[in-house]
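Student: Please help interpret what follows.
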Amino acid sequence: MAEPAQHVSYAEYLEFIEHAELKHEYIDGVVVAMAGGTIEHSRLVARTSYLLQQALEGKPCNVFSSDGRVRIEATNRSTYPDVSVVCGSVQAAGDDPQGISNPVVLVEVLSDSTEKDDRGSKFAHYRRLPSLREYVLVAQDAPRVEVFVREGEQWVFREHGPGQEVELTSLGVTLAVDRLYADPTRA
């Protein structure tokens, strides 16, 4: 199937992605194909999901992979975060039965091609989700995890490195940076 025209309605986007072989984001009428990631990106996404699932065992929360579409109706954008966490029941967007509208935590693993958007435009859109409490950025080039925490109307930045724990207060869990970056193939 061919790429859709530059500006399409959200309904046309949903119809298009139903048959598309690749993932596409939706940015206020513009459909954008998503690029594949590196091996390290994939490893860190899997590690983050695994550690979050372990930490959340027994809590009423679900961890979603990058196949889970997040819909930000306030800014007319849909995206596929690397990891999403929803506590309680998943709420679908009003215009997208498969679009998650109530994530509590979103995680993006940074790459050279996405870092600017992950820190800038995408984060600006994510901040419009009333449910979102924490936004986590995981670096590929060094053991560094950045967390933006919503405190009232403000977003507070916290950075974590080797030997430190990442506290996700909205979930009541901590993740060890060293465990996140652990690679059993490296001595």
